[in-house]
Amino acid sequence: MNPNHLCRRDESLVLQNLKLKLSIDDSASTDCESNGYFPYPKTLSWNRTTDCCTWDGVTCDKVTGRITHLDLSCSQLHGTIDSNSTLFQLSHLQNLNLAYNDFSPSQISSKFGWFPSLTHLNLSRSGFSGTVPLQVSYLSKLISLDLSAGCYFSGIIPPTIGDLTELTNLQLFSNNFNGQLPSTILNLVQLVEFDISSNNLTGNIPDIFGNFTKLKSLSLSYNLFTGLFPSSVTNLTELESLDLSNCSITVSYLNLSSNFLTAIDLLHNFESLYYLDIGSNLIQGELPAPPPLLFLFIASNNNFTGKLPNSPLCKMSSLVILDLSNNSLSGVIPKCLVNMSTSLSVLDLHNNNFSGTIPNNFGKGSSLRSLNLRKNKLEGVLPRKLTNCRGLEVVDLGENLLNDTFPKWLGSLPRLQVLSLRSNKLHGPITITRNQVLFSKLKILDLSYNDFTGNLSERFFNNLKSMIIEDQTGTPLTYIGEVRYHDSLTLSIKGQQIELVRILSIFTTIDFSNNKFKGDVPKSIGNLGSLRGLNLSHNSLIGPIPQSFGNLSVLESLDLSWNQLSGNVPQEVASLKSLAVMNLSQNRLMGRIPRGPQLDTFENDSYSGNGGLCGFPLSRNCGDNEMPHSTVPDIEDEEDSGFMDWRAAIIGCGCGSVFGLFIVYIIFLTGRPKWFVNIVNQHINRILLKIEAKRRIEAKKRRRHKRRRMKF
Length: 712
Known about the structure:
Elements: H1 9-21, E1 23-24, E2 58-60, E3 67-71, E4 77-78, E5 95-97, E6 120-122, E7 129-131, E8 144-146, E9 152-155, E10 169-171, E11 176-180, E12 193-195, E13 200-203, E14 217-219, E15 224-225, E16 241-243, E17 253-255, E18 275-277, E19 284-286, E20 296-298, E21 303-306, H2 310-314, E22 321-323, E23 328-332, H3 335-339, E24 346-348, E25 353-357, E26 370-372, E27 377-380, E28 394-396, E29 401-402, E30 418-420, E31 427-428, E32 444-446, E33 451-455, H4 458-462, E34 481-482, E35 485-486, E36 489-493, E37 496-500, E38 509-511, E39 516-520, E40 533-535, E41 540-543, E42 557-559, E43 564-567, E44 581-583, E45 588-592, E46 612-614, H5 646-670, H6 673-711
Parallel strand pairs: 3-5, 5-6, 6-8, 7-9, 8-10, 9-11, 10-12, 11-13, 12-14, 13-15, 14-16, 17-18, 18-20, 19-21, 20-22, 21-23, 22-24, 23-25, 24-26, 25-27, 26-28, 27-29, 28-30, 30-32, 31-33, 32-38, 33-39, 38-40, 39-41, 40-42, 41-43, 42-44, 43-45, 45-46
Antiparallel strand pairs: 1-4, 2-3, 34-35, 36-37
């Protein structure tokens, strides 16, 4: 042996002896090409006169010269590897790959457990047979174990396999394993891929998935499993592939939401399934036919396309919750979905590409509580038979192509809390005849971006009884919806479209913006003491801002911009301590802007486009003869020119707290921390600028006062 060779002489002899025991057979690696590998006889390059570290398939440690990797896959090898093989003398091996050869009828030797440094062992498609020896569990550093297809392993999967706690890849498919799946597999918490399909495993699947937080691929198909499928599968938050086909297991509850699944099929095989949530994945293609006994089916936030499977859906007589929102489904909405409304409580198809008209066969005795068809391409008129759904709480038909008049007939629904018809082609006036009591439970009404006309009726707002209740102190915070499904809603807040993924039951808002309303702003709006948001912008409203708005004690957002309002900004508005957002721009308002803790936090853009307004924060002075009496007490003279108005700072902090509560609510419901950070930073900067401006004004007043005293 050449002393300059890196390879150790003893290990070179081991490989030479291994080569002598095996022969070359072209048919031994026939599966290689079909699996993307090129077969060739690597051992032909094993020449005793050369350094074994340069031989095909051999890798050595560059310092010690020990053989650490031996890859003989697709080497067209034939022969037996038994316990007497010199292979097992390579005690420093870290990676051993014998795949795609023919070592039949070799029995797998217990000496495969003699490699203490082994991290990868691949015997797939190599013809080994027999039972897996317990000694395999000695391979404590093993990361990948592949004993799959083309082998003939039998017997039970040894429970000691649970000792291989570093395993990330375990492939045992296409063998003859029998018995039960050992519960010790639950120790393999590092698993990323686990495939035991196509065996003869029996019994219940043990509840082993609770800690498999890294698992991406799981296949249990083509076995003889029975019993219930463990609910701990819902902990598989990284799952991309799941195959349970051709088993006899009873799956009643299956939650695979918020994973990375890209495909799912054969759902109808799970005839006992009553709960299925595959929402928030990456699943593409047509929606698979769901099992017939489902009471909950959620497939939202995926990439499903095509039409709905009408026939299977129409047979789901027990369905209570159906959520297919945020996909790319198309076609017309099947009438059968409305026919099953005696059981159906939630129908959510929003943000798809459905077209045609909304079915008008809602039957009497309907259990429908929530109907969300927002953001589709639906046209025609609003279905009058919705009045048969006496339990309706939420109706969201916004962002479609509906062409109709205002559906005052929906006001007869005794439980209706949310009505959104935004961004359609609705038109005509909003009228209510005398003595009609409509919309008494309504808390959220959005008619924005339509073509409604006429005057706003005082009588209409007097009907909104649920918005009149002001004192809700001690009311527990609850959400509209139910335990397994939460209603969502898109709102316009400060000019931004925001989707609330949950709706607080105490949240009340009215949005009539971007229509053609005219006439005066109804004074009766001021009676809605629980109102938190009001948007009447982009209309043709005239007259003054009602003084009754001072009664809206919890109002947080007010937008009256782009109208033709006139008169003064009422002093009563200055008392609104919760007001966080206000826009009165582009009107015909005049006079002095009132001062108050909240109004002092707003900038010029809240009042721009009103040529007659003056006073803080505008640069337009109202004149000394009209010097206002500030709602903030005068500041005593200070000698220090660097004096800071700390009372103004306290006012800023107070309004910041109110603004903060409003924003935290929005953040919690939208999950947009970056937007939150930007808004808060802007708000803090505004407060600091106002404090500095106040300081300068006070300093100027003190200097003028001193000059006057010097004259006398």
